Amino acid sequence: MSGDTNSKLVLRDFSVFHGKDHSLRRVSMDVKTNRILGVIGPAGSGKTTFLRALNRLNDLTPEIRTEGTALLDGDDIYGGSYDVVRLRKRVGMLFALPVALPMSIYDNVLYGPRLSGVRDRRRLSEVVERSLTAAFLWDEVKDRLQMSGLRLSGGQQQRLCLARVLAMEELEVILLDEPCSGLDPISTAKIEDALTILKDRYTIILVTNNTKQAARVADETAFFLMGEMVEMGPTGTVFTVPADPRTGEYITGKFG
């Protein structure tokens, strides 16, 4: 089973159960390569569950199980032989609250590469500069890389966490769970600017409670409600044209 050849992720009838209860119900979608997919919906609609399912963080909760198909580049990420460690190197995640590690800015960025065995100092320094630049943080911290990451502002810490994700050399997909929820407008704008540039290299899925943010940066938007994806289409269409909830069809044509 596969989707469009330009699809990075393909879900078909994908469900997540928490015990006997549905957290996510029969989601089918194609996430296109090098695009930003915005995911919106009220609290408890399944947005975070959906995001965590894409790099199998839900596996850490024993009572959670899945049904259906979730493909990354055509491979079933829930297949018995799929390497979960490599999956998380390819599919990185940024959370709502910044999780800067109690170490220097330099060491924060290099946490992943060092775990992967990278030791060459020149290569590590190049990773730090490249990742911090891509996260719109390099110019602010380049003269104090040995300072603790915990001393940065909240917005800077979130961009540091983004840089840490970007430092993973196998990275292909970035998942973001309300990354700007606690940030000021200036920090939010820097994160959004970074995402707009990063989509040239990565596929991005952005969960946000800010519909204006989805309208600004997302190429496509999916709306979740009570564990179901009830609508998905080009962002401009989702926000301006009503859809029939029974058929998924917009007045001007079929969505998706």
Low-confidence stretches: none
Helices and strands, in order, run as EEEHEEHEHHHHHEHEHEEHEE
CATH H-level homologous superfamily name of one domain: P-loop containing nucleotide triphosphate hydrolases
Q: Cα-atom Rg, whole angstroms? A: 18 Å
Q: Count of helical segments?
A: 10
Q: Which structural class is indicated by helix and strand composition?
A: alpha/beta
Major beta sheet, strand line-up: 6-7-8-3-9-10
Per CATH, the architecture of one domain is: 3-Layer(aba) Sandwich
Return the CATH topology of one domain. Answer: Rossmann fold
Text of the CATH class of one domain: Alpha Beta
Overall average pLDDT: 91
Please, could you describe this protein's structure?
This protein has helices at 47-53, 84-90, 105-109, 111-115, 121-134, 138-141, 154-166, 185-198, 211-217, 235-240; strands spanning 7-18, 21-32, 36-40, 64-72, 75-76, 91-94, 173-177, 203-207, 220-225, 228-234, 249-250, 253-254. The two termini are 18 Å apart. It has ten helices and twelve strands. The chain has a domain at 7-96 and 171-251: Rossmann fold (3-Layer(aba) Sandwich). The protein is 32% helix and 28% strand. Strand 4 (64-72) and strand 5 (75-76) form a beta hairpin. 41% of the residues are buried. The strands form three sheets. A six-stranded mixed beta sheet has the order 6-7-8-3-9-10, with helices on both faces. Strands 2-1-4-5 form a four-stranded antiparallel beta sheet, with helices on one face. The model has no long low-confidence stretch (mean pLDDT 91). By secondary structure, it is an alpha/beta fold.
